[in-house]
Specification:
Number of domains: 1
Helix content: 10-25%
CATH class: Mainly Beta
Low-confidence stretches: 1-25, 27-73, 76-194
Shape: globular
Structural class: mainly beta
Mean pLDDT: 76
Number of strands: 21
Radius of gyration: 24 Å
Strand content: 35-45%
Number of helices: 7
CATH architecture: Beta Barrel
């Protein structure tokens, strides 16, 4: 993922903080009591915090009182805080110990990008840089932040090695990746931080995005799902309250999120991660995060609901918006987590290696991700650990992040199926200055291996379940050239496929659906075609009882069974005006086949989605976009206006029985973002 821009924070003025904080702390005590006595029927031993999801049925009633109370309370509370008479001012606060979130390298920052107004994700600048400094001066006075990795600004252990967002109580918001936020252990004797005043900080955004896609045939009959025009919106608020010198309360809530207008379909609505069967502007409203963070003398402790993120986001992905992507992130992995992060080497010596070596351990109950939903009755437990090195190898010349991530998952689906899997993930990123002209090379790579077993999918030769052995890889490289205001880059990725679904070994690897590649081939063509196939499988008039695990063939727009090349370039034509062009070429590793058509053929011979011969040719597409980010127009607020377009040529994998191609598919997106 690519550049994120600075975001201002809202803070109390010193003169008016005391009486208002008394009210705030009272609200926090009330909220604490609510959480303490909230019950979770049928979930013995599960924290009540796990129910922070909000549902708004068509009648407007909330199905979960705790969820509704929390979101309404937070929304009302934030609305009061934003009133002018409340005595708030916009100020960028500075803090002696900046927070660094080391989990994922998704930010690509250039001097030009630093000059742009606030974005959706508040991140943190290195110590000594304040938000009061003009953006142009920042771009000139500090070295470019590496595009593909996050580096600690100090020697503090990043609690965010396994999560995506920091406390946001930093000295300023920067273009650094939001995966870089955590608190620091002081070097001198591992003593506690100095007391800090209680303060509320706030960032967020509201966007409205319109997408129009040309219709295309989903199967050999020429049927279409009708999803040609969609208008979505999202209001996301991220408050952070420092309640004491060492304790923060962090929240992340989608107040309003859903589909405002456009087309709908009932195809596979019950099993899609993002169904499109209704138009409701609150259908995806939810409390994404609410956790307590304690900055202890020897590390950092986090407890509550939070995002899970690592590396580029192939396996664990926070679902935060990427301003440079050609598609919106809609989900995000959320877990009920207890997480401890520390510097194990700091107890023994003060070498560079010891100061930059981190260990993070976590225990999770999965609330929601692309494999499980606690609300729907899935119980997924995880044990997660990460060991990584994150820091400057050469000051202002060479930054590096490298580490390993291991997760064990034991899951019981609502239908009693089981999944037990181990994930091994290695990630590395490097940012190197080339010469004295500000040119910088940024590279990153993540590779993952999944090993385990499940009975959620059965085969003819595996009546009691299948083994899992799947792998995936993604790598990026880009060069920042400030003199010409360009950033050329190249990405490649591989996700293993399964040539034989009946042999008792599942080899198909799927990237997290929030890892976005391109605009059409993966998000639209494969995402909607696989969903339509699953819809046909469940139609009793077309086929009898569906085979177990048919729903696992739905990609939800993710990269799976594919090798792709994705070159792209960003050009900053003027201050705030960015142009992006990308080309995507993709080919399958195993033949692309339709589970429905393949099951009804004699012997299960692979057949394409439109009845054609099996092929590995997925196709190619060209994407382009232009966006303009305004200066701050009112206090901390700024607008981004953008227009994107893509044209795809599906490959032979989507030909019909006569060998005729599917034809071109186009998509247009219009973007309007308000950030603060």
């Amino acid at each position: 993922m690519w550049p994120l821009r600075k975001a201002s924070v809202v803070a109390l003025t010193a003169s008016k903080a005391e009486p208002i904080m008394a009210v705030i702390l009272g609200k926090i005590r009330d909220l604490t009591g609510l959480l303490k006595f909230a019950k979770t029927p049928g979930r013995g031993g599960v924290l009540a915090i796990q129910n922070y999801h909000v549902f708004f049925p068509s009648g407007g009633d909330m199905t979960r009182s705790v969820n509704g109370a929390l979101v309404v309370a937070i929304a009302a509370f934030l609305a009061v805080l934003l009133l002018p008479e409340a005595g708030f001012t916009q100020e960028a606060t500075s803090q002696a110990d900046p927070v660094v979130e080391a989990s994922t390298p998704e930010a690509e920052v250039t001097p030009e990008a630093e000059a742009q107004p606030p974005a959706a994700d508040a991140t943190v600048e290195p110590a000594g840089e304040t938000a009061e400094q003009p953006a142009d001066e920042q771009a000139a006075d500090q070295p470019p932040v590496q595009a593909l990795t996050d580096e600690p600004t100090t020697d503090q252990p990043p609690v965010q090695a396994l999560t995506d967002e920091g406390t946001a109580d930093s000295e300023a918001a920067t273009d650094a990746d939001p995966e870089a936020l955590t608190d620091e252990i002081p070097e001198e004797g591992l003593v506690a931080k100095e007391p800090k005043p209680s303060k509320l900080k706030l960032d967020g955004y509201y966007w409205v995005h319109f997408g129009m896609t040309s219709g295309f045939a989903m199967d050999e009959t020429g049927a279409r799902d009708g999803l040609n025009k969609i208008l979505d919106h999202r209001l996301r608020i991220r408050p952070t309250l420092a309640v004491s010198k060492s304790v923060d309360i962090v929240a992340n809530v989608d107040i309003l999120a859903g589909q405002l207008a456009g087309d709908t379909t009932n195809a596979s609505a019950d099993i899609l991660l993002v169904p499109r069967h209704e138009k409701r502007f609150t259908s995806r409203s939810t409390l994404r995060e609410l956790y307590l963070e304690w900055h202890a003398p020897v590390g950092n402790l986090r407890v509550g609901q939070m995002h899970s993120h690592w590396g580029l986001g192939l396996v664990a992905n926070n679902g935060e918006d990427d301003l440079e992507a050609f598609a919106d992130s809609m989900l995000g992995d959320r877990v009920e987590r207890i997480q401890w992060t520390m510097k194990p080497g700091a107890f023994f010596d003060d070498s560079l290696f010891a100061k930059n070596l981190y260990l993070s351990l976590a225990a999770d109950l999965v609330f929601s991700d692309d494999h499980a939903s606690l609300i729907d009755g899935d119980l997924a437990w995880q044990a997660v650990g990460a060991l990584y090195w994150n820091g400057n190898v050469i000051e202002e010349k060479y930054d590096m992040f490298t580490g390993v991530y291991i997760a064990y998952r034991n899951q019981k689906y609502a239908n009693k199926d089981r999944l037990e899997v181990m994930a091994f993930d290695a990630f590395t990123s490097h940012s190197v200055a080339l010469g004295s002209a500000g040119v910088r090379l940024n590279v990153a790579a993540e590779g993952a291996l999944q090993v385990g077993k499940t009975d959620a999918f059965l085969g003819e030769r595996a009546k009691k379940g299948v083994d899992v052995l799947a792998w995936g890889l993604a790598a990026r490289a880009e060069v920042e050239v400030p003199k010409y205001r360009i950033i050329p880059g190249l990405e490649l990725g591989l996700a293993s496929g399964d040539a034989d679904r009946e042999d008792g070994l599942s080899r198909a690897f799927s990237f997290d659906p929030d890892y976005k590649v391109g605009m059409i081939l993966f998000p639209e063509l494969l995402g909607r075609t696989t969903a339509w196939s699953a819809h046909r499988v469940t139609d009793p008039s077309l086929q009898g009882r569906p085979s177990k695990g048919y729903d696992l063939a739905i990609t939800n727009g993710a990269v799976t069974n594919a090798f792709y090349l994705y070159p792209r370039i960003k050009i900053t034509a003027a201050k705030g005006l960015d142009i992006r062009v990308a080309f995507l070429w993709a080919r399958a590793l195993a033949y692309v086949s339709d589970p429905f058509n393949s099951n009804i053929t004699l012997g299960g011979y692979p057949v394409g989605y439109r009845g054609g011969k099996p092929s590995k040719d997925i196709g190619y597409e060209i994407d382009a976009g232009i966006s303009y980010t305004t200066p701050k127009v009112w206090g901390p607020f700024a607008f981004r206006i953008g227009l994107q377009g893509g044209l795809a040529r599906p490959g032979a994998a989507f030909n019909d029985a006569f060998g005729d191609s599917l034809g071109s598919i186009y998509k247009i997106r219009a973007l309007l973002d308000l950030t603060f």
